[in-house]
Structure formats: structure tokens, C-alpha cells
Sequence to fold (165 residues):
Amino acid sequence: MTQHQDQNIKSRPMTGPLEGIPLPDLERLPDYERGFWEGSHNRELRIQKCCGCNTFRHLPTPMCPSCHSLEYKWSKVSGRGVVYSFVVVRNPVHPAIREREQVPYNISLIELEEQEGLRVCSNVLNIAPEDIYVDMPVQVTFMPTIDEPNVVLPLFVPSDWSPTA
Ligand SMILES: [Zn+2]
Fold:
């Protein structure tokens, strides 16, 4: 890996959802995933929470992996967290991203403040890929996709970022 080869070239910050990527089909979602996307549509980050042991879990599943309860609710969380890990994609596999030159972009695993190990895979916007770091505080933001406006993605921005900055 030659990650320092271009260290003097500043990348553009990613400012919105990538175009041309596969998106969830809201009509065909299983019930146990629906609350997550309904939450995003309402600009809320909702995470599945077990009614048996009160544990959050993500990705959504029909059964709690801890206590095996089938009862769950959708709980609105703060949307605050930190970058747990990330990768910067420079050579996209997906042709739509390659053709539209949407690289480099980051894929980031965000650990939410509500529970250790509760992590959401997303992107961090408004920051150059070179400036992201592990433990960076971030805050959720919501953005409709260009390709399917009914699909609203929960994305993240640095906690100290504001649109007027
Ligand atoms: Zn449980």
C-alpha cells in the first residue's frame, strides 16, 4: 500500500451521498429492518433495542443474540459517536462511482455513544479523507439520496462542523 505517495495532495471532502450505488428497496424490507429506515426518513437515528435485556443491536436482526428474545422496539439515539475505524476508497469497484469520479471517499464505522460496541457503517461528510482519525467525534446528519429521494441515509459529520463554518 502506498498511502503516503500522494500525501501532499488534498482530497475534496465528500459532501453528500454517492450516486449510482445500490440502495435498499423500502417496499421489500423485512419488518425487523423497517424501523431503521423509517427513522432516517423522519430524520431520527433509530436503533433496535431488545425488550428482554435492553441491549441495543445493529445491524437489525429478528432475534436478540444475547437473550434470544423476539421482542424489540425502535429507540431514538443521540446520533453522537466516534469514528471506530475507517477506510479511504481510492479505487472503486462499482462502475457508477468510478465513472462519476466520486473518489476518494471514506467508509467509516461509527461507534455510537449509547453502548460500547454499537456501531453503524456510514460515511463522514465535510472532511477530507486524510483528516479523518480514529476516535474523531461525529454527529449524525440525514440526506436523501440522489437516485431514490425516499431513501434517506444516516451519514455523519465531524462534531465541530457547522454549515456556516
Ligand atoms: Zn436481549
Remarks:
- The longest strand covers residues 80-89.
- The two ends are 34 Å apart (CA to CA).
- Residues 50, 52-53, 55, 64, 66-67, 69 surround zinc ion (CB under 6 Å).
